[in-house]
Design goal:
Layout (H helix, E strand, L loop, with lengths): L4 E7 L2 E6 L2 E9 L2 E6 L22 E4 L4 E4 L3 E6 L3 E6 L4 E3 L14 H10 L13 E6 L5 E4 L13 E4 L17 E2 L2 E5 L4 E6 L5 E4 L7 E6 L4 E6 L4 H12 L12 E3 L7 H14 L5 E4 L14 H4 L4 H8 L3 E6 L3 E2 L5 H9 L12 E4 L2 E4 L6 H17 L3 E4 L16 E4 L2 E4 H4 L3 H16 L6 E3 L2 E2 L7 E3 L7 H16 L5 E2 L1 E2 L8 H11 L5 E3 L15 H16 L1 H14 L4 E2 L1 H4 L13 E3 L3 E3 L9 E6 L3 E4 L5 E3 L2 E6 L7 E4 L3 E4 L13 E6 L4 E7 L13 E8 L3 E9 L7 E6 L2 E6 L5 E4 L1
Parallel strand pairs: 13-29, 19-20, 19-33, 20-21, 21-25, 25-28, 28-30, 30-31, 32-33, 43-47
Antiparallel strand pairs: 1-2, 2-3, 3-4, 4-18, 5-6, 6-7, 7-8, 8-9, 10-17, 11-14, 12-16, 14-15, 15-18, 16-17, 22-24, 23-24, 26-27, 34-35, 35-36, 36-41, 37-40, 38-39, 38-41, 42-43, 44-45, 45-46, 46-49, 47-48
Bound molecules: alpha-D-glucopyranose (GLC).
Length: 766
């Protein structure tokens, strides 16, 4: 359609290229980030993922050659050809990614007769007729690509040979590899090749499609039903640079409150205050550490958002206060669907303010969710967001410490919302087709802003639906998984890919939401949950209860062991989040992130890294009491036995039901807290340092764990340097938080030594 290249002009960081049949704009955002744009349905970007000006002043050169126009930054060369074909090279001239020069060749040939049969049995039908999408970019496959990212998609770590869609969906059936889309739309992927790596972020909110070489082997493509051609090519030396650059564009998960990194218990089915009290008391009686209890929809009056069910949960706020006395924090669920009921305050306010989506007829659009007939806040309207932000005050005044945003795809019980339901896109009229994939994103933003405004602490919002950039506002979980071994297995690649997609604060429902957990499955799931950023046991009505004590002594002991371990490792998790805010790297990482040249880890579905230092190799198969483990090159220590292992090979390790194989990289220092039942139980003024011999450096962050004072310098930064000769040096790099650790307890080779600390550097002979 674009035809021959005619002319170009440069303005600021953008090069506008005129073709016979349209125009393209190549913008240099940074030396490593290039935007490729063409205004198909409107003139601008209207990004929901990118906030603020990201374009830096970059020195770049434009060369107009006979064959192509070349734009050269310090890191990339972009060549623009006729037909708006765009190829990317590294500064040294290595080809990274080229547009495919042919046409897509869909392979599905099926006669009307067989189509009718497929239709009759209710099968999904292949796309027939013109297989091309209105917006479509086809890239040439060089043959050595592995693909990662794409948010919460099911299946395996490496997305090569699979196809996916972006259309936020609440599908209650057991999620399998065949699912094209789940709750989140993160149209970003990383391509890892033999000797290079790059990322592509297709910033398009419409129903979109990603085929990573499934249709044909010689190309892969991404496309969308509508919107603009608008993608970012992201370069970098190594995979962490791609993640850093992507999160530079779309934002980073901010440091959460410390308690949110503790353990959470939830169940859809705690029907009244008595149920909740009993669960809370049992945790304390059994001395299983826990911080947070989640209140699912039953705490509301008739599932009406921002109300309280006094009949079953007593006087508003009283239960939350009571739980608070034994250290519990409460998170309350809020769905977007507002019950359509005359006289209900939220409904009336929304009607009066014009805050709900409307049908083409001009009437407020109704569908159904938990409360029955319901209407949908139009979160693309800044006034709706402001109103919704204000409503958070209700929860904050009740004493809740966070909000859990669910059903925000949006889910609807009487069929999906029609494409033409009227929504707002900031200052413009828009529709459901354009705003669907950002609905949960904008709801989270509104919630975040409300908590930011009415509570001094860092907002704790959990969301089910996301778009690129949701990490700035919310933690996320993988939705309604089930108590199936396949879902425990999937948790690893799913969390790894979400992390690479910017969604750093993530977790799965530990034990599985639907179906019935077995004792063994719960034991193995808590071992994965222990190392997941969001560590929450949650289950559905209709499934058996799955609190840790319900399955006998062994299961209880295993749960306790890993929940206690989690609390010991809290400072490590907290450091990882601080690193995440700084660099965008997620706590849960696929091995490929740090060992991208190691072919062995490109398809690694059974292990993950927690930061750079800890490798988790959980058992995720029924009946297994051994695990085949791969350690990347270098020296490692078995966390449990302290046995030294040399990486670069596979081996079998014993893993009875209470052992999750764990390895720590040589030269690491792992900070630990002393045992605690919950954050805030006692002063955390002693830090235990587990030292794993070798040369290394670790920087540890400490602050009040709650508010934003750290952004004004109210934090301490400690440096721990270990040398292979057996010394450990402790130094304070930044002092801004009044509570220094009083004491360091150093554990090395079975020996424990204590050192008082007053802020002066310490050198310790181990
Ligand atoms: C949805 C959520 C689930 C929740 C339930 C009831 O299924 O995904 O977590 O418990 O709704 O609110």
């Amino acid at each position: 359609m674009y035809g021959k290249r005619k002319s170009y002009n440069t303005k600021g960081g953008s090069v506008r290229v005129c073709f016979e049949g349209g125009e393209g704009v190549i913008s240099v955002i940074t030396d490593e980030i290039i935007n490729v744009f063409s205004p198909v349905s409107n003139r601008g970007h209207r990004s929901k993922a990118i906030e603020g000006e990201k374009a830096e002043r970059v020195d770049f050169k434009v060369n107009d050659g006979a064959e192509y126009l070349e734009i050269k930054t310090r890191a990339l060369r972009v060549r623009v050809y006729d037909g708006y074909k765009v190829d990317f090279y590294s500064a040294s001239g290595e080809l990274l990614c080229a547009d495919y020069r042919g046409s897509r060749r869909g392979s599905r040939q099926i006669s009307e007769k067989f189509l009718a049969l497929l239709r009759a049995e209710g099968h999904e039908l292949p796309r027939l007729g013109d297989i091309n999408y209105k917006i479509q970019v086809v890239k040439r496959m060089e043959g050595d690509e592995a693909f990662y990212g794409l948010g919460d998609k099911t299946g395996f770590l490496n997305k090569r040979h699979y196809d996916y869609e972006m259309w936020n969906s609440d599908l209650p059936a057991a999620h399998t590899d065949a699912f094209k889309a789940l709750y989140k739309s993160v149209p970003f992927f990383i391509t890892l090749r033999k000797s290079c790596v790059y990322g592509i972020f297709f910033d398009n909110t419409y129903h979109s499609y990603f085929d990573m070489g499934k249709e044909k082997d010689d190309y892969y493509y991404f496309g969308a039903d509508n919107g603009n051609l608008d993608y970012y090519f992201i370069g970098g030396e190594a995979m962490p640079d791609i993640v850093r650059n992507y999160t530079y564009l779309t934002g980073r998960a901010p440091l959460p409150q410390l308690f949110t990194l503790g353990y959470h218990q939830s169940r859809w089915g705690y029907e009244n205050a008595g149920d909740v009290r009993e669960v809370a008391a049992k945790y304390r009686a059994l001395k299983i550490p826990i911080d947070t209890i989640h209140f699912d929809i039953d705490y509301m009056d008739g599932y009406k958002v921002f109300t309280w069910n006094e009949a079953d949960f007593g006087e508003p706020g009283a239960l939350i206060e009571e739980l608070g006395k034994s250290g519990f924090k409460v998170v309350t669920i809020i769905d977007p669907g507002v019950k359509a009921e005359a006289g209900y305050e939220i409904y009336e306010e929304g009607l009066a303010g014009g805050y709900f989506a409307v049908a083409q007829t001009g009437e407020v659009y109704e569908n159904a969710v938990w409360p029955g007939d319901a209407v949908f806040p139009d979160f693309g309207n800044p006034q709706t967001r402001e109103w919704w932000a204000d409503k958070q005050k209700f929860l904050i005044e009740l004493g809740a410490r966070g909000v859990w945003n669910d059903m925000n795809e949006p889910a609807s019980f009487r069929g999906g919302l029609l494409d033409d339901v009227v929504f707002t896109d900031e200052d413009e009229r828009s529709n459901h087709e354009a705003m669907h994939n950002v609905y949960g994103h904008l709801m989270s933003k509104a919630s975040y802003e409300g908590w930011r405004k009415y509570d001094e602490r860092r907002p704790f919002v959990i969301t089910r639906a996301c778009y690129s950039g949701s990490q700035k506002y919310a933690a996320a979980w993988t939705g309604d998984n089930q108590s199936l071994w396949a879902h425990l297995q999937m948790a690893i690649p799913q969390m790894c890919n979400m992390g690479l997609s910017g969604l750093a604060f993530i977790g799965t429902d530990v034990g599985g939401f639907g179906a019935d957990v077995t004792p063994e499955l719960l034991c193995r799931w808590v071992q994965v949950g222990c190392f997941s950023p969001l560590f929450r046991n949650h289950s559905s009505r209709g499934s058996i209860r799955q609190e840790p004590w319900l399955f006998g002594e062994e299961t209880l002991a295993v749960n306790k062991k890993y929940i206690e371990l989690r609390y010991r490792l809290l400072p490590y998790f907290y450091d990882l989040f601080w690193e995440c805010e700084e660099k965008g790297l997620p706590p849960v990482r696929p091995l490929a992130l740090h060992y991208e040249r190691d072919e062995e880890v490109r398809d690694m579905n059974g292990e993950f890294l927690l930061g750079e230092r800890v490798l988790v190799a959980p058992v995720v198969e029924q009946g297994a009491d051994r695990k085949l483990v791969y350690l990347p090159r270098g020296e490692w220590y078995d966390y449990w036995t302290k046995e030294k292992k040399t990486g670069g090979c596979w081996f079998v390790t014993e893993a009875p039901i209470d052992v999750c194989p764990l390895y720590v990289r040589a030269g690491s220092v792992l900070p630990n807290f002393k045992p605690m039942q919950y954050v805030g139980e006692h002063e955390m003024d002693e830090l235990i340092l587990d030292v794993y011999g070798g040369n290394g450096r670790y920087v540890h962050f400490q602050d009040n764990g709650e508010d934003f004072a750290y952004r004004d310098g109210a934090y301490n930064k400690y440096e721990f340097v270990t040398l292979a000769d057996g010394t450990l040096k402790i130094e304070l790099l930044h002092r801004g938080y009044e509570k220094l650790y009083r004491k360091f307890i150093i554990r090395y080779r079975g020996r424990e030594q204590e050192f008082a600390f007053k802020g002066d550097p310490l050198t310790i002979w181990l």
